[in-house]
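hey so i finally got around to running the thing on that chain from the lab meeting. sorry it took forever, my laptop kept dying and i had to restart like 3 times. anyway pasting the input first so we r on the same page abt which one it is
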Amino acid sequence: MSLSKSEQQSSNLKPEHSNYVTREELREFDLNNQLAKLALPLAQAWRDNHPNAQPGSEEDLDECVLTVAIEMAVAGEAVGGPMGALIAAGGGVAAASVACRRVL
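ok and heres what got predicted. didnt touch it at all, straight out
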């Protein structure tokens, strides 16, 4: 059984690199989203403890991010595994930044 010309052409198609998402990229995206969800209650707690924090204040944002990132680092060390590694590689800071921007 031989393939038709159109079947042969379609089997030779390769996804363009710019439109192709690897499993690893998808997994990392999912982990980053999970981290942001975990950071949100921490950022909200920081906001609740700082009622005078101003939405446009870089100083307040920086303080929130630092506090949340530290809490994320402590949790990441306790959890270990892929999530702990992602936090240690800077994912906790990125998640803290997203979460603090949402609450401020």
